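Lab notes, practical 5.
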Amino acid sequence: SPLQKTISDRQFFQQAAIEGYITKEEALAAVQTGTIPASLQAIINTIQDENDKFNATMILSGATSFERNHPLVTVIGQSFGKTEAEIDQFFLDAYML
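Output from the prediction step:
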């Protein structure tokens, strides 16, 4: 099936919880109040450039959708040891939720 290039924030965080990267409670907090899950905050904390760090924080706490081709998606995926194909699969699985 064709790659789904955009998923909602709800789909992103729900799929992350299903796959065990964040807790169900963190997924709920992320969509309810924009609270960034600890494992994702840890990734943000590794970003050296303050502008890049701010941008990543804004995206993870405020985005209503996530684009597959956004550079931050690749950074997060690689941080969790995912290949490009596995990131694609994450987006497909999330889209089905």
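Observations recorded by the TA: DSSP finds six helices and two strands in the chain. The chain has a mean pLDDT of 94.
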